[in-house]
């Protein structure tokens, strides 16, 4: 019986690996075929040299960074105060941070377009910069679950209450505590949240497309509709970026920061 | 690559609030810091209100209104028109198919990695890869599958060349319902692996040993102990996968575009250009979506707490 | 023929030997405890008797049948785990009746047996509860009932009390022993707690690093430890360095003070350095008297532990602890005070050279 299950297990793993690796191999192989008759990285060269690629990729990176900054500034104090002084609010906050996982992104952006269009009090979509801001806020919303969870786990791992009380005994005021004591100790939690947010934002399509912003997601879709070989090169690049983000999370000890509950 | 616009969650355990840390009852150093705390969390709540709750709420309420703002249920009646009903039905089918397929395959893979007595490096590799793959959705994924199973995709070509099997002669196309389902599996299966693995870990070795001592065969162990313990988690995870697929946009957009009319594509088109000539119908569509995903996630959470009850 | 015979049992995991040469005969109805620190191999032996591990070498026989290569489910052993391992999806009654159910016994027989077992563990009203609704002690009792329901030939208990509170541990171990006596079932109990082992066993096997250090009754193990490990693991032991003055008369010297032991010493031991051992309960605070040993020491610490007061004294490099019963009417020595420790000649043990 033991050897039987091992055969079954190996079969499952091999079949699974094939299913997951073959599309990657196929895509990579296809991306090398731009130059007729020979394998080359021509598609990559074209893509990387394309000013539209650089513009949209740069735009998305900028959006990602802004999202991370806003997200951290929003989430860390909140998680901190809730843990320390307002434990009764915890269920409410957690419910809020779970909503973006339940409400699909397309519904959220639909809501934005209806509420914040040019005829409302806060005409975010009125001009480009304001729309960019709205996009960032949308991304912050989408990444809220990951960011909050990572930070919260990080806070719980370092027993915030004791740290704060110790710091208070030594005479620190709350900005000092927040920035000199708490932030450094939850660095790995913040970084995990940041990398996840990065992965989410870089390839995001729905929000960017419906808000009509020149992000990487819509760019990818446009290329796919019009070109043959470049999309596959882009897909490989996208996969590499996702892999890198996830890898960096592992590097920064995410297992501890992001787990915290078994299912 | 766009996690939330398509694949949903890379960390599925996010969907259930973690157990409360036992914060000791503290009266605190005084009202001043209590006020400070309230002020400290205000930005978050303001943000949540403005960019999450109000927009969603607006749509939900708008679903019950007509273009003049009067209360009506007409929009829901409109939902029953063939285009919309079809869209829901196709969405339902794709989501169910990819959820069930993902659940089955993901469970098998997770079981193989956790209990299959394989070399030690298989499990961490599988988990890492699942973490990446569950996030690799959206437009790039669509490209990848076109490169694989498209008309001139690698696999299609190899099948023809070495096995003489013409995939497209059978009527299969990657730009179809089955193609989309197959593509969805790419992030559904890893998601299932990520959720189910901890549940499998929760199967204590001692249960198996106790069952052995009492004279149980492996079949009896699975039938009377392991499966009953696992099914809430597995079912809950399947519901999660369902909700995940239901709300996905980008992959479908890039792969089948408007040729496969699923709810998210319909909604997308409606937002872009009011193709149904009725704004409020769009709201109703959105409400319907939120109901579906809400119920699925609710089911997942309920099943999960049901499963937790027996553990520790 | 003994009921459970273990011959020359060895177990290696790759290059790592977990168990060296384990030999033992256990009589029917005996309660044997394997005692030792973590990693000493006691659980390994238990798991091989249960059938979860296969020995690298050696034979296990139960009731004259060679079970060494028999599957667990064919062995009819009952096992109680440290983590209770009750099936969470089943009620208490279903848990207890599980073995009978999968043996396809008729329902009437199962119900009757479950009822009997619930009475035996004194939890008759908890049949319909689920494990997560029970306390740790109750869960472990249910686990016991489950293991015994099928009338196994051997009962194996793998540190069953380690996860429980101190008070429950004491009462439950009495219950386990009482139950075992009533049913007359051969039992093997694994623990690292020497008090548990001493209080309920017929015989104890003390193990360390995969080897058997000593097998004997609780009294033998405690009063006549053969090695330093046994002496220090089972109970507290004061160890002193001294040397032999005269092996014929048993005279020893410690820190310039002369002591006598009744333990036999080899004739050529004169002048040799040896380790001496002294149980705390053998020492009394008394002035020097003829026919008894006296050691002059200085009080380092007095710890009030409730019924007992532990006094720690120092003799040059050695620390000697002694226990006196609490008596509020009698004063206690103070730190730094010189005291005189008295004990009989018989109580001065000389340890085997080389005992770690």
From TrEMBL, chain A:
CDD domains: TM_PBP2. GO terms for cellular component: plasma membrane. Its main location: membrane. The keyword Nucleotide-binding does not apply. It is a multi-pass membrane protein. It holds the Pfam family BPD_transp_1. The chain crosses the membrane at residues 7-26, 57-80, 92-113, 133-151, 190-211, 231-253. Signal peptide: none annotated. GO terms for biological process: transmembrane transport. It is found in: Cell inner membrane; Cell membrane. Residues 57-252 form the ABC transmembrane type-1 domain. Keywords: Cell inner membrane, Cell membrane, Membrane, Transmembrane, Transmembrane helix, Transport. Belongs to the binding-protein-dependent transport system permease family. This is ABC transporter permease. It comes from Paraburkholderia panacisoli.
